[in-house]
Amino acid sequence: MPVKTRRLPKKSVSFSDEETLTTRSRQMGDKKRNASHDGPPIYVKPTIKTVPLHLLALLYYYIKLSQDFDARTLLYMLIPLQLIYVALQFNANTIYGNKISKLRWSLLPISFAAALVLTVPCMLIIILLGAPISMLLKETWLLAAHCCILTLPAVYSIFKCNFKVGIFKKYFIAVAIGCWISCVVIPLDWDRDWQNWPTPLVVGAYLGAFVGYSIGPYV
Amino acid sequence: MGILSKTIGLLALQIVAILTFSAGFFPQKSFLKGDAQFLHLPEEQQDVQPRFEKLVLVVIDALRADYLFQDEMSQFSFVHGLLNDGHAWGYTAYSNPPTVTLPRLKGITTGSTPNFLDAILNVAGEDSSSSLEEQDSLLRQFRIKQKTINFFGDETWLKLFPRHFFDVVDGTNSFFVSDFEEVDYNVTRHLPRQLASQESWDVMILHYLGLDHIGHKGGAFSTFMRPKHREMDAVIEQIYNSVDDNTLICVMGDHGMNDMGNHGGSSAGETSSAMAFISKKLAGFSKPVAQRTEHIPIKAKSEDYKYLTKVNQIDFVPTVATLFNLPIPKNNIGVLIPDFLRLFSSHEAHIKVMDNFEQISSVAGQPCKELGSTDAHIAMMRDIQARLAKTATKYDYKLLGIGFTLLAFATFGVSKVCLESLQISVSFLILIVVCFLLSLSTFGSSFVEEEHQLWWWASVGFALISLAKAPRQTGSIFLASVGLRFIRGWNNSGQKYIYEHTTSELLKTHSEWQWILNVFTILGSSLVLRQQPTSSILADFPLSALCLVYKASWSVANGENVPLWLQKVVSNIVPGVANDLNPTEVLKSQLVPMARIFFSWAIAQVFIELMAHKREWPRRRTLIERIHPIITLILIFQTPSTNIPQFLVFQIIAPQIESLWHQLSDSNVTALMTVGLILQHLTFFQFGGTNSIATVSLTNAYNGVSENYSIHAVGFLMCLSNFAPSIYWSTTCLKMLLQRQPRVVPKKWQFFAISRLPALFFYCIFGCFLLGSCFILRYHLFIWSVFSPKLCYYVSWNLFMNVVIGWTLEAVIIAMS
């Protein structure tokens, strides 16, 4: 089931009135992010410090150590690590108005709650993009939860940085592309455990997020 | 030289190339002519006493090994008793793929391994090339000995053997797969008379189809299986109790089935069929080794369906020939089952083994040297058999080479023309990516089996790219995606994943909803969805109504669930049904004339539209706009009733795609044709199609075709029904194109050529890779079950969708408009 997660329609629907997203993103493409006319410059510093090493560690745990690819335990481990990542790495390298963005603690639970709420539309999108409807709903929700928690830093930053969605949408896209590409292994007839829904997509989402957070600031 | 003539030239070259390759890949198998004689010490063999006088061959279609031997599955309690008492010897028989009836029957009568062409001929039906009239077979040997053969059951036997082989015959058509009872009753009803007059025949062949039909309809675990087993068991009991010691009863499946109930491939379930030899005489000899320790039914479940001794199904041929003291058919590569040598004295046994050995050596074309023991001979024969079965097909390397080279040239030419005349745009790049992704997938057997996933993957990718390009069009994209998601959930495709709650299954159980949707699709959708003038909707109405009545009558006549209100409507409309005592029979007899009226009416209406178009009345309507609803109706007519509402979904998403195309890609031809290509394939698979021969649907191929049909009409209708959604999308894309570019009269042929280029490009690139993979993997385990069917599908996509629909039908439409 080629399935891809994506948040774009939702984003553009909810925020496009507030901000001219398309022009914004075109400017992004032209690397004119500082020549903004509607607020202070916001970007993530291109530095090695944003590389989310904990995602690789979690993947190692998931593939090698966990039993039967236990996505639930993985999720429990992911949540605190992502919160720490936001606090220590991602936010610490986000530039908001020419200086490093300060961590606002109150936003952490809010963005976490927002990410949890997002799991529902995210799951609907995954189903729209091909996941089975009547069966494996719990697994699909788990996948959606993973995707949403993986994008937690971006969600936090959107709250923090005045809802400038355009800057952070690449992280959503990265997770989505990771999921999408990882679907390729599903049709193979190797009959391995890791081909079961949603294991390959979870792995794909992690890899996508890893690549996204690592090289995101450079693009 | 215009671009049109150039492309047509390249198209012709491509077609010639793939046909040449196919001719080399699927050669007609050559066989040794003439009738077999005893080879080893012929005079002595003449005097050997046949161990049995009469043969009753009971072929139960798709009787998998566990159906006869395994405790949970099997209900053959009488046979189990015989097996335990030693009155019956049971085997698991390996049936060589392709596991479909016609090739398997060839196997169990001639003892040779089939070639792939037979699998297609099984579908294609009437064809003299599959006949065994000239080829030596068990039946022929019986005939030479002046034995009388009676036959009851599947007509395939009558296709294979000339009528004069048989004495009394009653063939059953295997066409209506939904019928479980009548096909078998039609065989069993002859038994009392035949068993009462046993002196009138020497060989009786019964071929039961019901079990196979249950499998196709409800899978291997269908609730109808158990009663059917008991019915078959009772048949065997009836035969056993009325024949004497000198009669051998063989019960066998021609092939097995997988858990979905399909067959044709090479999975363990499909290739493991059951085989049992039953006779009172066998009780006097010791049982086969594996049978001595096992109590039947066997409790343990075997993953690879191996129960008791495993033999090759074609071993049946030399075994029976030996027991009846007949010469072993000339092309046989079966090895006689050693257990049966116990029925002979050791001297005779040795002669018989040597005869089989000499015969099989002559097929292999190797000198036959005497070895030490009987076991050594048997082992040697098994070696030869394995080797011969593997090299059963001799590829014609010269043709393969020519075909591939020509296709490479064609591909080169097409790519060059594409680069020259298509603008290099994002959509062209996407086309290239799609081509290469699909092409690379031809090297993996599972990707070929699950091709629908790749098309779905591509269409999801396409939707996302559109979204990235134009976030403002979210509404259209969302609607189109939802529509596509519905289509994806409609049917199961591929081999790996089977979902129980597909839309078509839901509709089957909720027939009320199904028919409300069908009625709306056929009658109502034009009113609500299309921006057509009311006059043309009114003109189409009688045809739509006829289409609906036919589909409903067909379903009633074939025992599908149809809501009562619709049944009433049908019985009131169709003449003669309401007052008759047996309405279903009348309805059945009315189907053919009704379908004929529909087709003639549709053709007449196309002509009327043509005339109206020439007179330009009403004004400003392109020809394709006029006849597209009629084409859609014909396609709906050829669609199974559970799939009809998909056309409603199509009609909802088509305008979305059209508007997206205008706004996103600035009406780029390549973009639309790429989307069209993806949709053609996606919908083909989501209509239930796969890349396996097993899902070629014949249910709508006989619409309006009477008893003595012509194979061309059936073939054409079969293509029409299997490719119905693809044809819809092909013509719909043409409609969108022509509406965008109205009256480009001076350049219309150039325009047409450019619009056909993307598809041609795809078929060329894909073809190169597919032919390459078929060649490289020609000794692969799955070559006959996965890659060869894919090659056949590729050829039919090319010939039918590309040439007949894309180039011919659409060219005619363009020429007329």
Automatic annotation (TrEMBL), chain A:
Keywords: Endoplasmic reticulum, GPI-anchor biosynthesis, Membrane, Transmembrane, Transmembrane helix. Pathway: Glycolipid biosynthesis; glycosylphosphatidylinositol-anchor biosynthesis. Residues 1-10 have a biased composition (Basic residues). Its main location: endoplasmic reticulum. One of its GO terms (molecular function) is mannose-ethanolamine phosphotransferase activity. Residues 1-38 are annotated as: Disordered. GO terms for biological process: GPI anchor biosynthetic process. The chain crosses the membrane at residues 42-63, 75-95, 107-129, 141-159, 171-188, 200-218. One of its GO terms (cellular component) is endoplasmic reticulum membrane. It holds the Pfam family PIG-F. Residues 27-36 have a biased composition (Basic and acidic residues). It is a multi-pass membrane protein. It is found in: Endoplasmic reticulum membrane. Belongs to the PIGF family. This is Glycosylphosphatidylinositol anchor biosynthesis protein 11. The lineage of its organism: Eukaryota, Fungi, Dikarya, Ascomycota, Saccharomycotina.
Automatic annotation (TrEMBL), chain B:
Pathway: Glycolipid biosynthesis; glycosylphosphatidylinositol-anchor biosynthesis. It is a multi-pass membrane protein. InterPro entries: Alkaline_phosphatase_core_sf (IPR017850), Phosphodiest/P_Trfase (IPR002591), PIG-G_N (IPR037674), PIGG/GPI7 (IPR039527), PIGG/GPI7_C (IPR045687). Residues 392-814 form the GPI ethanolamine phosphate transferase 2 C-terminal domain. It is found in: Endoplasmic reticulum membrane. Ethanolamine phosphate transferase involved in glycosylphosphatidylinositol-anchor biosynthesis. Transfers ethanolamine phosphate to the GPI second mannose. Belongs to the PIGG/PIGN/PIGO family. PIGG subfamily. This is GPI ethanolamine phosphate transferase 2. It comes from Lachancea lanzarotensis. The lineage of its organism: Eukaryota, Fungi, Dikarya, Ascomycota, Saccharomycotina.
